[in-house]
Design brief:
Helix content: over 70%
Structural class: mainly alpha
Shape: rod-shaped
Number of domains: 1
Radius of gyration: 12 Å
Order of helices and strands: HH
Number of helices: 2
Length: 31
């Protein structure tokens, strides 16, 4: 169960990083 949660968090973090790299103006939104 914990392993699944960790993988989910990593997946979300990667998506946020990709979105930030594509649109740096979204920095205020992510912060």
């Amino acid at each position: 169960m914990i392993y699944i949660i960790i993988q989910l968090i990593k997946h979300v973090n990667k998506n946020l990083n990709n979105r930030y790299m594509e649109n740096p103006q979204s920095n205020a939104y992510l912060a």
